[in-house]
């Protein structure tokens, strides 16, 4: 396994042992309507009963349990054994079946070609340097015509300071850069100790098209509050959308497209 994956596995193990916010399982409130909790946009329609779903880099017992509660046949892959322990525990507590696989999102060779109807990935591509490599793996394991729902940190959010100066936030990191981002203060934007990478739009969205997906939806979930105090997450959210959520569909043909295809919105 790559050095960055091993490093991030160790850090997420520690975060999971500490019960950090993004390592917590699904709540009772989430479970009242599990499908809406994992798909607030309604991109998956009214039912996913019987769908074969891969929760990619999604350990912690939230996504896996919610998809299983919505009736899907769930596999969860994560690099952190401690995050996966949360999935095992949370599924057992609810009497749900979840298959748990330890590994990196950069190598999905453990899975059959076209074996999933849906791959669902919460924010996690920031932990690998080459996002297109991940997309190519996903394109192989999702069936032609199947869906890939993913969420990513926006490039400008990875570039900008977390605290304001002169009323605004500074774009402090170059857009064209190599290697991990400098260490940042822990908070809602970054987890302490992880290695994170910035991905440009041409990689995040163009890369999906190159891997054989057509984009069917794109939203920037709102994290802005007009009355938030300077420096708060929701104040920064007035200036910068921290995340982007993408609905992509695997092309029907087996061969990836050679040129990006972007459907107009
Ligand atoms: C923000 S958490 C996502 C799951 C969380 N349940 C949530 O609600 O957002 C990011 C996850 O990515 C995982 N991760 C980091 N690098 C990875 C890699 N190379 N391959 C697979 N998983 C990885 C971490 O272990 C962590 O569980």
UniProtKB/TrEMBL annotation:
Residues 54-148 form the Methyltransferase type domain. It comes from the Bacteria. CDD domains: AdoMet_MTases. It holds the Pfam family Methyltransf_11. Keywords: Methyltransferase, Transferase, Ubiquinone. InterPro entries: Methyltransf_11, Methyltransf_Superfamily, SAM-dependent_MTases_sf. One of its GO terms (molecular function) is S-adenosylmethionine-dependent methyltransferase activity. Its EC number is 2.1.1.222. Coiled coil: none annotated. One of its GO terms (biological process) is methylation. This is Ubiquinone biosynthesis O-methyltransferase. It comes from Posidoniimonas polymericola. The lineage of its organism: Bacteria, Pseudomonadati, Planctomycetota, Planctomycetia, Pirellulales.
């Amino acid at each position: 396994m790559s050095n960055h994956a091993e490093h991030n596995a160790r850090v997420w193990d520690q975060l999971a042992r500490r019960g950090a916010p993004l390592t917590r399982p699904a709540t009772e409130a989430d479970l009242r309507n599990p499908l809406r909790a994992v798909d607030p946009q309604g991109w998956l329609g009214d039912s996913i009963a019987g769908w074969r779903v891969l929760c990619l880099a999604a350990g912690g017992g939230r996504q896996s349990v919610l998809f299983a509660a919505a009736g899907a046949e769930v596999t969860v892959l994560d690099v952190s054994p401690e995050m996966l322990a949360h999935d095992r525990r949370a599924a057992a507590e609810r009497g749900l079946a979840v298959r748990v696989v330890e590994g990196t999102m950069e190598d999905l060779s453990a899975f059959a070609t076209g074996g999933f109807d849906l791959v669902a990935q919460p924010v996690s591509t920031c932990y690998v340097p080459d996002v297109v490599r991940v997309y190519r793996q996903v394109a192989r394991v999702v069936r032609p015509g199947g869906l890939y729902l993913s969420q990513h940190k926006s490039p400008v959010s990875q570039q900008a300071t977390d605290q304001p100066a002169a009323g605004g936030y500074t774009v402090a990191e170059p857009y064209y850069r190599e290697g991990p981002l400098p260490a940042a203060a822990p908070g809602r934007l970054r987890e302490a100790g992880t290695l994170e990478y910035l991905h440009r739009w041409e990689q995040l969205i163009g890369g999906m098209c190159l891997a054989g997906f057509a984009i069917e939806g794109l939203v920037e979930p709102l994290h802005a509050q007009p009355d938030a105090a300077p420096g708060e997450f929701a104040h920064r959210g007035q200036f910068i959308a921290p995340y982007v959520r993408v609905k992509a569909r695997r092309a029907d043909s087996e061969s990836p497209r050679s040129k990006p295809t972007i459907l107009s919105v």
